[in-house]
Amino acid sequence: MMKKYLCLGLLFVCSQVVYAKDYAMGYLAPIRSVTVSSEVTGIVDEYSSEIGDAIAQGEVLVKLSIVDNLLNVKLAKAELGVSQNELITQEKQLQRFASLYKTKGISASDYDEQNRVTTLSRAQVEVDKIKLAMAQREKDKSEIKAPFSGTILKRNVELGQFIPSGEALYTLVDLHKVKVQFHLLESDILATKVGDKVSVIIPALNNKVMAGKVDILAPAFEAGEPGFLVEVVVDNPEQILKAGMQAKVEWAEQGV
């Protein structure tokens, strides 16, 4: 048996990993992990989720103050109302000018000018509709929602806190499946393929054996890495497997 010190990138820690002929050691990590951030600036009015809480996709995690947003929406609606009324006036004027032009009551240049003004009024209405939609969208962004169902791993938000755009608020992980990452040498990687079934043994759970499957095989040897990256995925419907647990991956005799 040969011991090597490998850096398991997903967990950002260096750990002792033991290789033997038919197994490798690694650590469990979530199948998905994301830092939930705010797209807009604002003051935190409300948050309801704590570390360890189960979260459904689309659930509101944080609500920012919308006082300014409501004013912007109100302003955009008022501007749209003004431009719509102006368009009604200009279209009536255009109809009147069209009748006068037919009877030679006005010149072609006068009619063309009114047509131009009416066209600009129509364009202004469309611009103000877009402004209103943008104001509404900005208000909607004051509610920060979970991008997928998962579990809260970290909370970085407090009531009354000023949140700049891009500020990290929560770390959300999906533990319905977990993965084990480790590295294999070139002599072992040739005997491994995506889809291979393996046994994943969890020492912390009295050596509980879980079924796993090779999901990723690195196509190349990365400079600075101790070997070819391999990723094994394990179903975790009851979420008894926790990120950071040590895992022993075993192959059948015909494997590596």
Write out key terms for the chains shown.
alpha+beta, Elongation Factor Tu (Ef-tu), domain 3, 6-stranded antiparallel barrel, 4-stranded antiparallel beta sheet, 3 helices, 14 strands, disordered N terminus
Strand-residue proportion: 35-45%
Rg from alpha-carbon coordinates = 31 Å
Q: DSSP helix count?
A: 3
**SSE order:** EEEEEEHHEEEEHEEEE
**CATH homologous superfamily identity of the largest domain:** Efflux pump adaptor protein, beta barrel domain
Q: Give the low-confidence spans.
A: 1-20
Molecular structure report:
With 256 residues, this protein is of the alpha+beta class. It has 2 domains: 2-59 and 150-250, Elongation Factor Tu (Ef-tu), domain 3; 67-140, Helix hairpin bin (Helix Hairpins). 29% of the residues lie in helices and 39% in strands. It has 3 helices and 14 strands. The chain has helices spanning 67-102, 108-140, 186-189; strands at 2-8, 13-19, 23-37, 42-47, 54-55, 60-64, 143-145, 150-155, 162-163, 168-184, 197-202, 208-217, 228-235, 246-250. A 6-stranded antiparallel beta barrel has the order 3-10-13-12-11-14. The chain has a 4-stranded antiparallel β-sheet with strand order 7-6-4-9, with no helix packed on it. A two-stranded antiparallel sheet has the order 1-2. Strand 11 and strand 12 form a beta hairpin. Helix 1 runs antiparallel to helix 2. The longest helix has 36 residues, at 67-102. The protein is elongated, with a radius of gyration of 31 Å. GO terms for molecular function: efflux transmembrane transporter activity. InterPro entries: Beta-barrel_RND_2, BSH_CzcB-like, RND_pump_MFP. Residues 180-254 form the CusB-like beta-barrel domain.
